[in-house]
């Protein structure tokens, strides 16, 4: 029922209260009928195109004559008429171009246009324009503004009347950009003809063609005759009514080996004179757009499903990949989609190779950048959601992109299992297939969107595409977020009701225009539920979902069944019923829905299970966007986490698998592997390392080692956790005891602008660290004593330069030293094609009392300070790289003054530093290995101690070194590997070369 009917209905109801239910029903029926007469009834305009066009492959033009018959089915008299001239957008100064220059739209597309529109230039020339109603001329003049042609109708077009528009037109066809244009000899004709602007219940949709956003068309009939060079083969919307599109001439003989067949085919292919032509007519009805592709390089294969012809047209050079697969995948797509949502209504579907990445959908025809099954599903799926059920893609992109993203993931999971891709599709090596675990495709997608939605950059789905602040928001809101909304809807309604709802939506709106309300009404009518609580927050707001169990009570009853009482809390701000799964002591599962979810922050829910319960889970299959499953469990007993009292998420434990990215939604992943550290004093130190992670929300790593000589134990525990709804976004912590040196630390991070790439503050950290050094026999990096340092850091970014300012001090006289420190760093790292440049600048100053500052808190001259070095097991002492003392001396870990040639000198750090590191580099990937050749200059002005014992130290001394470096990065068995060898040529102090500079340095870390 529509809202505007309600007052009328209530009025009638008041009058007839006495007459009972029957009378009410009659009145209701009357009101519903009545509303039909006064504008509530659906209507759509009808257009009939007749186009005769000729392709000129020398001048790169397409054009000819269009006759359009326009039937006004609306209740309004139309005073104006509009045509979309989409191709006009590819000129300097258009709305599209200006939006790209302003940084809107997809960056990859914008980057091309910023270099100039010339290669993509396309434009219409229009002449002999005339609109007539029978023999009366409504107008013969028009205006063109950007991509919209407007005409004023002299006496208007009445409801039910029709008019005929005639025009001659020519379009310059530019190089392929966005969705259409030339790729070599191939012409992808999309949005290629003057097309009638939609007039619907909201009036004319005469928007220009924006940088971001797609299309909207009137349903109708197309009669198109194409005239192309004789050697060109055509794939098109519609069916052939006259002429020969050339398919049989290029049909692949699939009984032969493709490469052998192609060789023979090429040698037999006839050559045609340049004046020989191919003329073909195509006819299509009940479509709202018409596209076609032509090239002399097409090959053809065909198939059929349920009487629907399946055509595949692909380039010779892609033939090996496309042969057989394209037809089979297209057949499967229309079969699956027809079964799930509603029967394919057209006589044919054509899958074409568009010779450009990505894909695009048109009625009966898709243009695909590859033969990928997911891509074919997505684009063919659009024939349902966009094509058959035609939405305004600019205003409500989610109604086509969200639906197709949803059905593609569903299909791929249906076909290939939960990971949602073809294991044998060639993406993975055998060892990866064998040893890696793969997350659920739905879960992986959910993580991606949780990351985005909790970034502060989220916007509501129901927004015109060009209104989003950035491309990430436009993409997320058109594609991924609504696809996950549909998954949630399927979960709460159940698959059967959901499919019924989709089929009802299809039945009502096939070959019509849809919108949000029409979809929601179909779902509400079929499910019998009011779903406003579900759709409003998803579509018109930005909210996060998170439910948890606070605690539970369980009581055994006289009949041996158990009552369970759960205290459920909504931590997020979106409502959702919860499927509660109780795992019973005998291993069986009991499920029940909690549906008291509307506008409720806390609730107590009691239910009965047949035998003793073990533990309880909310949303056991992780079907919702609940951003934090750590609070969805009660009763889990994990020996690893005795403090949590069963209120924790289970672990999935396995031996460490390098390179594997596996992030289940409702499990911690624990991986372990053996380690072997070394120190002269302790000898070899075997041990284990454990890593526990929960995707983007938690990570902890712990090391435990025992020295074989001294039998001493050493441990380290470090990690971070994120609090999605709290004002502090991340907490980092560490604690270690390596005998003689022990320490701990805690840092709170407030994200200010995590995902935004523009200038401004990024994040702030507050925290402290604490060390106690009693014995320095295992490290030369520390002075003995106790130290507590409070630290605040502010990170910002301006014009690609990252800035960090930090203030540190020793509070409450709790340390053996007292000092304050300020450090400012700026850094930059950018690539320009093969070349790149990076720099880092640091200014640091320490103020202290007479006790000076210990070694571990001064600015290191050659690189990172003691604290950073000490975190790496191989840099704790000059013996810790398995006894090789040379290694520590030559090792360079970036940081502090970063004068890399000054390692191995016994320099003990300074109190004041101003230093710059600059590198220019050339980079190239060869056979999976990335090589970088760099030239570097490190320069600094230092004041402070020089050597540990007796020296005047540096006093405004200028240190400098320069040289070249070679860096190699690759990954071996999924484990990333980085190696840097730098060769300094000279190192000077106040212009004088030092005697024994570090003549080469080595590192596993980057130089800045
Ligand atoms: Zn799409």
Low-confidence stretches: 1-39
Q: Which small molecules are bound?
A: zinc ion
Radius of gyration: 35 Å
Query: What best-fitting shape do the alpha-carbon axes yield?
Result: globular
Q: Which class do the helix and strand fractions yield?
A: alpha+beta
Question: In percent terms, what proportion of residues is strand?
Answer: 35-45%
Q: So what's the oligomer here?
A: single chain
Overall pLDDT confidence: 91
DSSP summary: helix tally: 17
Q: Gap between N and C termini, in Å?
A: 64 Å
Number of domains: 6
- Count every beta strand, where a strand is a DSSP E run of 2 or more residues: 50
The percent of residues in helical segments reads 10-25%
- How would you characterize the largest beta sheet? 18 strands, mixed
Overview of this protein structure:
This protein is α+β, with helices and mostly antiparallel strands and 1008 residues long. It has six domains: 3-40; 49-237 and 289-294, Sandwich (Immunoglobulin-like); 430-540, Neutral Protease, domain 2; 547-635, Immunoglobulin-like, CATH 2.60.40; 650-722; 753-760 and 797-805 and 814-1003, no CATH class. The strands form nine sheets. It has an 18-stranded mixed beta sheet that branches. Helix 9 (398-416) crosses helix 12 (471-493) and helix 12 packs across helix 13 (495-509). The longest helix has 23 residues, at 471-493. The chain is globular and about 105 Å long. Mean pLDDT is 91; it is low at 1-39. It binds zinc ion (ZN). Zinc ion is lined by residues 378, 382, 401, 404.
């Amino acid at each position: 029922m529509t809202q505007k009917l309600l007052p009328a209905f209530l009025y009638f109801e008041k009058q007839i209260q006495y007459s009972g239910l029957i009378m009410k029903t009659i009145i209701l029926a009357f009101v519903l009928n009545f509303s039909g007469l006064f504008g509530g009834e659906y209507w759509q305009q009808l257009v009939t195109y007749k186009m005769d066009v000729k392709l000129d492959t020398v001048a790169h033009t397409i054009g000819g004559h269009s006759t359009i018959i326009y039937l006004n089915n609306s209740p309004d008299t139309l005073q104006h008429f509009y045509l979309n001239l989409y191709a006009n957008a590819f000129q300097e100064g258009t709305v599209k171009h200006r939006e790209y220059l302003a940084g809107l739209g997809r960056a990859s597309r914008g980057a091309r246009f910023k270099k100039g529109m010339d290669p993509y230039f396309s434009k219409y020339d229009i002449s002999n324009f005339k609109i007539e109603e029978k023999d009366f001329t409504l107008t013969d003049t028009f205006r063109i503004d950007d991509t919209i042609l407007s005409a004023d109708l002299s006496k208007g077009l009445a409801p039910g009347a029709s008019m005929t528009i005639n025009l001659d037109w020519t379009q310059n066809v530019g190089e392929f950009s966005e969705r259409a244009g030339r790729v070599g000899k191939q012409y992808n004709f999309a949005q290629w003809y003057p097309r009638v602007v939609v007039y619907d219940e909201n009036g004319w949709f005469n928007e220009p063609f924006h940088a971001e956003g797609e299309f909207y068309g009137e349903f109708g009939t197309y009669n198109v005759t194409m005239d192309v060079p004789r050697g060109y083969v055509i794939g098109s919307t519609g069916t052939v009514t006259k002429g020969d599109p050339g398919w049989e001439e290029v049909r692949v003989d699939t009984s032969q080996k493709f490469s052998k067949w192609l060789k023979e085919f090429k040698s037999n292919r006839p050559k045609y004179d340049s004046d020989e032509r191919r003329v073909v007519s195509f006819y299509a009805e009940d479509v709202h757009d018409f596209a076609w592709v032509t090239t002399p390089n097409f090959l053809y294969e065909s198939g059929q499903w349920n009487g629907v012809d399946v055509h595949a047209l692909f380039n010779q050079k892609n033939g090996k990949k496309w042969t057989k697969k394209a037809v089979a995948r297209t057949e499967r797509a229309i079969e699956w989609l027809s079964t799930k949502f509603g029967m394919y209504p057209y006589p044919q579907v054509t899958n074409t190779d568009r010779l450009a990445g990505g894909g695009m959908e048109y009625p009966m025809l898709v243009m695909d950048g590859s033969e990928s099954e997911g891509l074919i599903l997505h684009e063919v799926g659009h024939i349902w959601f966009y094509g058959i059920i035609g939405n305004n893609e600019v205003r409500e992109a989610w109604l086509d992109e969200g639906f197709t993203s949803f059905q593609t993931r569903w299909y791929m999971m249906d076909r290939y299992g939960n990971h949602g891709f073809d294991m044998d599709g060639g993406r993975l090596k055998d060892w990866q297939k064998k040893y890696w675990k793969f997350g659920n495709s739905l879960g992986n997608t959910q993580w991606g969107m949780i990351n985005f939605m909790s970034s502060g950059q989220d916007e509501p789905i129901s927004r015109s595409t060009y209104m989003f602040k950035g491309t990430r928001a436009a993409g997320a809101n058109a594609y991924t977020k609504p696809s996950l909304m549909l998954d949630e809807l399927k979960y709460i309604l159940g698959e059967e009701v959901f499919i019924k709802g989709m089929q009802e939506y299809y039945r009502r709106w096939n070959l019509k225009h849809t919108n949000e309300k029409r979809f929601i009404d179909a779902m509400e009518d079929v499910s019998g539920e009011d779903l406003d609580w579900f759709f409003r927050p998803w579509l018109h707001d930005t909210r996060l979902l998170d439910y948890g169990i606070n605690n539970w009570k369980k009581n055994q009853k006289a009949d041996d069944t158990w009552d369970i009482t759960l205290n459920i809390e909504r931590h997020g701000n979106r409502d959702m019923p919860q499927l509660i799964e109780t795992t019973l002591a005998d291993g069986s599962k009991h499920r029940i829905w909690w549906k008291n979810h509307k506008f409720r922050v806390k609730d107590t829910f009691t239910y009965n299970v047949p035998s003793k319960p073990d533990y309880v889970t909310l949303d056991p299959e992780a079907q919702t966007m609940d951003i934090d499953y750590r609070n969805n469990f009660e009763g889990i007993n994990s020996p690893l986490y005795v403090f949590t009292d069963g209120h924790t998420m289970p672990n999935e434990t396995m031996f460490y698998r390098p390179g594997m990215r596996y992030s289940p939604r409702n499990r911690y992943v624990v991986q372990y592997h053996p380690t072997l550290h070394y120190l002269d004093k302790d000898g070899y130190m075997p041990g284990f390392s454990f890593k526990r992670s929960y995707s983007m929300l938690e990570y902890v790593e712990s090391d435990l080692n025992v020295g074989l000589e001294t039998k001493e134990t050493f441990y380290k525990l470090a990690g971070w956790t994120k609090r999605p709804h709290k004002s502090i976004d991340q907490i980092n912590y560490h604690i270690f005891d390596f005998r003689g040196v022990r320490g701990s630390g805690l840092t709170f991070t407030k994200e200010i602008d995590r995902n935004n790439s523009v200038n401004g503050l990024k994040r702030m950290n507050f925290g402290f660290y604490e060390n106690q050094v009693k014995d320095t026999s295992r490290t030369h990096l520390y002075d003995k004593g106790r130290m507590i340092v409070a630290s605040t850091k502010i990170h910002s970014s301006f014009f690609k330069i990252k800035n960090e300012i930090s203030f540190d001090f020793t509070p409450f006289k709790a340390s053996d030293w007292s000092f304050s420190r300020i450090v400012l760093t700026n850094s930059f790292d950018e690539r320009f094609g093969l070349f790149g440049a990076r720099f880092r600048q640091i200014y640091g100053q320490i103020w202290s009392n007479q006790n000076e500052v210990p070694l571990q808190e001064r600015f290191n001259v050659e690189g990172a300070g003691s604290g950073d070095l000490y975190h790496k097991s191989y840099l704790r002492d000059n013996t810790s790289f398995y006894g090789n003392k040379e290694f520590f001396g030559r090792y360079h870990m970036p940081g502090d003054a970063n004068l890399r040639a000054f390692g191995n000198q016994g320099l003990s750090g300074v109190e004041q530093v101003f230093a710059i590191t600059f590198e220019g580099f050339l980079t190239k990937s060869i056979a999976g290995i990335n090589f970088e050749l760099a030239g570097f200059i490190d320069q600094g002005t230092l004041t402070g101690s020089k050597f540990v014992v007796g020296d005047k130290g540096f006093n405004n001394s200028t240190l400098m070194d320069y040289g070249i470096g070679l860096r190699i990065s690759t990954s071996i068995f999924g484990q990333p590997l980085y190696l840097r060898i730098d060769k300094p040529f000279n190192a000077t102090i106040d212009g004088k070369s030092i005697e024994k500079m570090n003549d080469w340095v080595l590192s596993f870390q980057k130089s800045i």
